[in-house]
Amino acid sequence: MPNETPEPTFVVRFVGENIRPEKVPLRAVSDALSAVQDMASARDPFTMPHVPPEKSIGLLNVTRGSAQYFCVARAPDEAKHNLLQVAAVLSDSNPSQSDVLIGSLSAIDTLSQVARSFKGRVEIVLLNNGNQSLIFTISEGDYKRVSKALLLKGETTVVGKVERVGGVTGMRCLMKLPDRQRVLYCDVKTRALVRRLGQHLYEDIAAKGTAVWLHRSWRLLKFTIQDFSQPRLGDGKKALETLRGAGLNAWDNIADPAAEIEEMRQ
Amino acid sequence: MIAVGIDSMILIYAGHVPKVGESDQRAKNLRVRSKLLIQDLAEKKATVFLPSIAVSELLVPVPSAQKGLLVAQLSELFVLAPFDLQAAAIAAELWAKHRNLPQDLQYEVRHVLKSDTMIIASARAAGATEFYTTDAKCRNLANLIMVGKDLPSHSENMFRQKEIEDAVGGGEN
């Protein structure tokens, strides 16, 4: 029967003291469900822009009286398998750098933030012929716990195009990087810097700042812009004249520059 | 966005006007082609990465009082790519990959390999996708992680090429 209500695959449950559905912000529900959908479809947001329709998650039995959301997966077996894999990673006290963890890191971050927003935890419960089994729980500290073995922080330079600057909740800048599909949401150190960046919308910049990478793949996860510049060759001929005037002409005294450089490198 | 790295020799050749009359045709040729590259990259509005290790090489013969000025001018024109954590990891990987190259493409001098590895890794970590060098072995090394390129042999702009050839032939900049 095409109109028959499908059986729910799993439940996303917000659990906390005195939690009531009307107290859960709509944004938290939306963020949590999107994150769980990512986990269930094994979507790595860095490589797959959207969850394909055949793997999407729908809601069932949404009624007042609870903060639990019955979800139906279009590919239920795959969704259960993927969620169980995330559960295995989360239950490990010292999680390995598996593809599952790396792919679901962003969703775990979102669910940790959602849990913090209502001071509770998000539970994922699998449903099998009416039986419920709690497979994992995410609380505020879980992202920090699982990510600490994966992330590396350091100073670097990032070159890209400024796509958007500003933001209601913080000082942010969206940059489009040449070898990356998704835009990079950067934090910006000062308001003055936000204003300066705003004057360079849709222009290429070289931003200096602090990066957080996934150290196995060197995927850039977070970047805080501390300063930026816009190096440009401009007129090539003039550029060379400028450099000679600034001291590059000292090489004129060296008859064989290639031999000199080779000696330096030894 | 065109994002290319260059090594120090390209800038040295592009700006070189030898005091002593030059008879070496190869060096003359490299000076013409280096100038062509810089002018072509400028015309294409490319983002050009100059690794900071290459900057230190450029500074060696420059008088102390002028070193700061040259660095300031370089930073206006190029992205000065540091040897940061990511570059260090890329360099280590590049070093390991070099061992798998055929014997005739490998470096004979390990110190040179080390410098070139660090220079290429710095450019790649900063975002360069192509690397220009006058040295064939360095190009092979760059090819292991990006596109290693030789200097252009000619320009699409024939007037530019003629102008540069005349200037180099006449000992001008």
Can you tell me about this structure?
The complex is a heterodimer of chains A (266) and B (173). Chain A has 266 residues and is of the alpha+beta class. Chain A contains seven helices and ten strands. Chain A has a five-stranded antiparallel beta sheet. In chain A, strands 6-7-8-10-9 form a five-stranded mixed β-barrel. Chain B is an alpha/beta fold. Chain B is 57% helix and 10% strand. Chain B is built from eight helices and five strands. Chain B has helices spanning 8-15, 25-43, 52-59, 64-77, 85-98, 110-126, 136-142, 158-169; strands at 3-6, 47-51, 79-81, 130-132, 147-149. In chain B, helix 1 packs across helix 2, helix 1 packs across helix 3 (52-59) and helix 2 (25-43) packs antiparallel against helix 8. The chains are: A alpha+beta (266), B alpha/beta (173). Chains A and B meet through strand 6, strand 9, helix 6 and helix 7 of A and helix 1, helix 2, strand 2, helix 3 and helix 4 of B.
Short description:
With 266 residues, chain A is of the alpha+beta class. Helices cover 31% and strands 30% of the residues of chain A. In chain A, β4 and β5 (131-138) form a beta hairpin.
Sequence-ordered SSE layout with sheet pairings:
The complex is a heterodimer of chains A (266) and B (173).
Chain A: E1 10-15, H1 26-40, E2 57-60, E3 68-73, H2 76-91, H3 99-117, E4 121-128, E5 131-138, H4 142-147, E6 151-166, E7 172-176, E8 184-188, H5 191-198, E9 204-214, E10 219-229, H6 236-245, H7 257-264
Parallel strand pairs in A: 8-10
Antiparallel strand pairs in A: 1-3, 1-4, 2-3, 4-5, 6-7, 6-9, 7-8, 9-10
Chain B: E1 3-6, H1 8-15, H2 25-43, E2 47-51, H3 52-59, H4 64-77, E3 79-81, H5 85-98, H6 110-126, E4 130-132, H7 136-142, E5 147-149, H8 158-169
Parallel strand pairs in B: 1-2, 1-4, 2-3, 4-5
Helix pairs in contact in B: 1-2, 1-3, 2-8, 5-6
